[in-house]
Write a structure and sequence with these properties.
Distance between the termini: 86 Å
Number of helices: 20
Strand content: 25-35%
Mean pLDDT: 90
Low-confidence stretches: none
Structural class: alpha+beta
Helix content: 10-25%
Largest sheet: 7 strands, mixed
Oligomer: single chain
Strand order of the largest sheet: 26-29-30-34-33-32-31
């Protein structure tokens, strides 16, 4: 919502500049999104002028040479060449002198037009951004502007030609702030500056029946209140410049004085209005009812809209005239020849307006207000203000009486809710003492009524806040935000067992992310939503666990209609984005949540599986290219090295096991298994290792679908990792005696994985074996078909002495025996 600052200051004018006002409003919950400048950048060189003469230009049919008194006297009148068709002697006009800065930033200079020197410009409304379009110059009227228009008077004293405009974000629970006066009330409470009387405090209208007009409400559940007044002798004409300037600054397009009055009253009170040409209302009667399925109405934007049975419309004897709360109809709109106006101000059921707006894909200033829940009392606020303006600006005669219908009509609105506010409770919640006098001052400034009682206050909630303030805690919030949230101490909640530290799972997650950053990877953040086509692009067959997706009921688009079942999709999207922009070398990771629906045979109402995962993707070169030769490319072993650095960070014993996933390269993929570490949540749960995730190179078809040549990846479940990892990583000191290193070469069947061989070696050797690694692999005729040779580096150490070959020989024999059970034979 846009609020011109001069309009706001008309009702509350604190001695603060625009930046300070922005800060106070934002800190009290009425957030100022931006501050705009509307009109001219600077007001210097803009003055009131009087046209003394307007003679035809000697060399141009469409130009006139004008003598204009700009405050220096008639003898020193400025010569201004003007092309407007309506310029004439005797007019009072707005003049820009040389040096003036126009709204588009152009600096006006003295210029020669067809041989005649022009010393300025006579301005139109559009050139001052008072209205969006005008065919001639703007003629100033002292009565309409209520100001003295002596030549030379600074134009800013007559019109708001340079205005700061606050763009506000009004939260859905505060529809009372959808009008300028409501924002002024907030500013009054926030700064203590005086608040002017409400603009609707004086109502020229009266109660009672209205002659010549009738209204019937058939759906009072959707129309809590409907009011209407009749105006005779209406003169439809352009609005005065001050009204146009104010509407334009607030983002509204001026149309004519009647329509502009409805928009002006809406912007000031927050309550939408609609003006009917009463002579075009067939039968002089309006009926409010639910639409019939398939019924059509032509709205003011020229479109014919098809309605359903949940949409409310207003009709006359000839059929529908408008859609309630959304937009008026073309058949009864105000025209230049209108002389009788029926001013309708109603309250509509907010959820129904929201639903209707969505169903018709039609949003308006009115619907945006109604759907937030306006109160029935606001109807007469707008009626009183509109009546004053119709009399003043249209010369209208207000007919006696007011139509006022509905269960929430005058006299039928329930009294204000009364709530108790305890002084001790305020201090307990906020953690700081707010004096009872200060609480009273704040609540009274916000239009609450307060009475002292033992230990606190008895507070009556004003009508405009009845849907927002319903409990004591809501009153405490009002006190806190106005007194200053920045003044509240930073404390933890008073709760048993509360601790100001990260949980074990959070520490594991951050440590895993830090480990990847430390290895040179860059973090990416992808959408939690995914395209259903992702499942086919990952070659997932029907029935695969990753196809158990969580579908969204109301997706933003078809391409984001499921929750992602894996991190690989968003990692591939990020990699393709970089490769397409000449970034072929990709090393990225993502830490985020993945979602999978429960299995069909899951017992009971088992919720969907939602866990936090870590995914890594490598593609291209691992290090920058240089003169020393081609750098190594991303492959299975590069990804495995990163995984090893991560899992050893948590002291886990882990291994890989050959496994085939549809989107991974056959023969270059594996499952990642790990055993619980001592002290972990799963320690002692069993000896079987737990599957953490997968590791491998991407299937060529999958990599190609994302425009990648070759890529390797892994993904693990950080929740399982946290359960497997001990909260404390124990430090083990190096032994004071040197290790004894021996190599062992053994041939094994190709079906025996190297990891399986290393597990057998470690199990057979016991505590004396400090480390065992594969440092060479050989396949060829010398070892026989179907076999391969593994060269193992063994490191033995004892803490109490230096080991000899004789000490290690029995352990070595056990290792050989274990390898022989796998079909192994020693070489050499």
């Amino acid at each position: 919502m846009k609020v011109p600052l001069p309009w706001l200051r008309e009702y509350c004018d604190p001695p603060l500049d625009v930046s300070a006002i922005e800060e106070r409003l934002t800190m009290t919950g009425t957030k100022v999104e931006a501050i705009h400048r509307h009109g001219v950048p600077a007001t210097d060189c803009f003055v009131v002028g009087r046209v003394l003469s307007a003679e035809q230009h000697p060399d141009a049919d469409r130009l006139k040479v004008c003598k204009v008194d700009v405050g220096d006297g008639e003898d020193a009148a400025a010569t201004i060449v003007c092309g407007a068709p309506n310029v004439a002697a005797g007019q009072t006009v707005a003049v820009a002198r040389p040096g003036a800065l126009m709204p588009d930033g152009t600096k006006l200079k003295q210029a020669k037009l067809r041989g005649v020197v022009s010393e300025g410009m006579i301005l139109s409304e559009s050139e001052l951004e008072i209205s969006t379009g005008s065919e001639g110059i703007m003629v100033l009227d002292s009565q309409m502007l209520d100001a003295e228009l002596a030549p030379g008077t600074p134009l800013e004293q007559v019109l708001a030609i340079s205005t700061d405009v606050l763009e506000l974000e009004i939260t859905p629970n505060r529809p009372d702030c959808l009008g300028v006066y409501g924002v002024a009330r907030e500013l009054h409470a926030a700064t203590g500056a005086p608040l002017a009387d409400a603009p609707w405090s004086e109502d020229p209208g009266s109660d009672g029946p209205v002659s010549g007009a009738e209204v019937l409400v058939e759906c009072p559940d959707l129309c809590p209140r409907f009011t209407a007044r009749v105006f005779e002798n209406v003169a439809v004409a352009p609005s005065p410049p001050w009204l146009k300037a104010r509407l334009t600054a607030a983002g509204q397009r001026p149309i004519n004085n009647v329509v502009d009055i409805t928009n002006y009253a809406m912007l000031l009170t927050g309550q939408p209005l609609h003006a009917f040409d009463l002579d075009r209302v067939a039968g002089g009667r309006l009926t409010v009812r639910r639409a019939r399925e398939g019924e059509q109405v032509q709205t003011l934007d020229g479109q014919t809209r098809t309605l359903d049975a949940e949409i409310v419309l207003i009709e006359d004897a000839d059929g529908p005239t408008s859609i309630a709360g959304l937009m008026g109809g073309a058949r009864s709109e105000v025209e230049p020849d209108t002389t009788r106006v029926l001013m309708e101000v109603a309250t509509w059921h907010g959820p129904n307006i929201h639903r209707s707006s969505w169903a018709l894909a039609l949003r308006s200033e009115a619907s945006g207000r109604f759907e937030k829940g306006l109160q029935p009392e606001q109807c007469m606020h707008a009626q009183a203000l509109a009546a004053q303006l119709m009399i003043d600006l249209c010369g209208a005669t207000l007919a006696p009486g007011t139509i006022d219908l509905g269960p929430k009509a005058a006299g039928a609105v329930a009294g204000g809710l009364q709530l108790g506010l305890r002084e001790a409770r305020v201090q307990a919640i906020l953690g700081v003492l707010v004096a009872l006098e200060r609480q009273t001052e704040i609540l009274n400034a916000l239009d609450f009524h307060t009475e002292a009682r033992a230990g606190g206050l008895e507070v009556t909630v004003p009508a405009l806040r009845r849907d927002d303030v319903t409990r004591e805690i809501d009153l405490i919030e009002e006190v806190a935000r106005i007194d200053g949230l920045e003044r509240l101490p930073a404390t933890l909640p008073a709760r048993r067992g509360a601790a100001g530290r990260l949980s074990h799972a959070q520490r594991v997650r951050r440590a895993a992310e830090d480990a990847m950053v430390g290895r040179g990877l860059r973090e990416v953040v992808g959408w939690s939503f995914a395209d259903p086509e992702l499942l086919d692009r990952l070659l997932l067959p029907d029935g695969h666990p990753l196809r158990r997706v969580v579908a969204l009921e109301n997706p933003m688009s078809d391409a984001q209609s499921i929750m992602r079942p894996t991190l690989i999709g968003s990692l591939l999207d990020a990699a393709r984005h970089n490769v397409a922009r000449n970034g072929p070398d990709v090393a990225i990771f993502e830490s985020g949540t993945v979602y999978r629906a429960a299995a069909p045979d899951a017992p009971g109402d088992l919720p969907a599986d939602e866990h936090h995962g870590l995914g890594v993707l490598l593609s291209g070169s691992l290090v920058p290219r240089s003169w020393r030769g081609d750098p190594p490319e991303a492959d299975f072993f590069a990804a495995k090295a990163l995984l090893e650095a991560l899992l050893y960070r948590f002291g886990l014993e882990w291994s890989v096991q050959a496994d085939a996933l549809p989107f991974l390269h056959p023969g270059r993929s594996a499952a990642v298994l790990a055993a619980p570490s001592p002290g972990s949540a799963l320690a002692g749960a069993g000896s079987e290792p737990i599957r953490l995730g997968f590791l491998g190179e991407l299937h060529p078809l999958v990599a190609g679908a994302w425009d990648l040549q070759r890529a390797a990846a892994f993904a693990i479940d950080l929740g399982k990792l946290a359960a497997l990892a001990s909260p404390l990583v124990e430090f083990a000191a190096f032994g004071p005696f040197p290790p004894l290193r021996q190599d062992l070469a053994v041939t094994l069947p190709e079906s025996v994985a190297a990891a399986e061989a290393l597990v057998s070696v470690r199990d057979a050797a016991g505590a004396m074996l400090e480390d065992a690694r594969v440092f060479d692999v050989y396949s060829g005729a010398q070892v026989g078909e179907g076999r391969r040779s593994l060269a193992l580096a063994l490191s033995f150490r004892a803490l109490e002495r230096t080991l000899t070959d004789e000490d290690v020989e029995p352990v070595r024999a056990k290792i050989v025996a274990a390898l022989e059970q796998l079909g192994g034979e020693l070489r050499g």
